[in-house]
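Supplementary Note 3. Input sequence used for the single-chain structure prediction.
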Amino acid sequence: MGKSSPQSFFFNCTLCGNNYELSLNEFIVKELPKLLDMDHNRLKESYKNGNLKFYNNKYVNALQFRKSLGKIEAGTMVCFDNEIHVIRGFPKIRRTLMLSKALEKHFNSEVAVEEKMNGYNVRITSLNGKIIAFTRGGYVCPYTTKKAPQIMDLNQFFEEHPDLVICGEMLGTENPYVSHYYPEIGKLGFRIFDIRKKLSNQPLSIKEKRSMLKNYDLPSVRLLGIYKLGDAPSNILELVKELGEDGREGVVIKDLEMQIPPLKYTASQAHDDELIYAFKYPFDLGKAFFFSRVIRESFQAHEMNESTEELGERAQRLGESILYPMLETIKHVAEHEVAGEDLVMDADTIEEAEDFVQHLRDLGVMAKVMEFNDGKAVIRRIHQSTTDKINNYINGGLY
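The predicted structure, written as discrete structure tokens, is reproduced below.
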């Protein structure tokens, strides 16, 4: 990915129809404040300290917000493509630990409960006819950019709604980011959870979204129910318990008009799955994952008023999720192997696989192509800190 900023660029003003040539600094000081309704000094300072960065690759030239700035979310992209397109970042969804009290405080009336699926969060939009997928951090995902139009027919949707952004999850066992088996998905699929307006980031209501997705035959996450506020906690707890037993992640609870930010709530088994993954690579991921998952488990056990037997089962799952994967990795590294994971992805050429590896490296992930045969690439993601520290301790290093 190129990192240099352009000396100047051309763009078409959608308000007056005139063409302009500006330097990037001029754009940030003169045009971007009007576009985003923000103080130019804040934007200028953000660019100076590296939070607002110029981003370019073969898909797009853009300004990327690495962190949130005022009302502008992290991952927001200001794309230069004849016209200026602002693709707002996806807002962080807060988590509730105690459903009954949190729902009562947070929502006003009925709530919609949609399934939260275990995949990779992306935003898909059209830039002057080019369908592009952005990661949550604002990077173009070459894999999803190629695969999403193969999985879904997006052309008519974006021809008729170029001002909208599809927010969803890339899913399946051959999803090279998060591999999770769903019977209805299989190897690769996509499910949409939001449709939002580009510049304002305003989401469509639950009814509008589901109607639009049905009209364009686009796949949505499951709507598990609509509940009155007083009935919601008991119903959601039962739903989440069933989802966990079925190997699924949890729920997102939404205001029907999408005027109030949604909340998420996940199953015990999903917490354990995350811990199993994290403690395979304890010195890369373990600490960041550990505390929050234990907190979730404790509050959930309390609210569900579990029996001694149920609590014992939860405690055993939690402990096994920490110890067993870590022990497996220690043994693996002790046999002179690296702590790594092999991801399988479809790729027409080895160059396509290398593009994806470069994308991972841009995200700060160490990875390399191990094999390429018959349209399948095996990509090894290396967890170097775990490898190095386990080797050090095995050889007598002090902790």
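The longest helix spans residues 308-334. The chain has five domains: 9-87, 92-115+226-262, 118-220, 269-334, 340-382.
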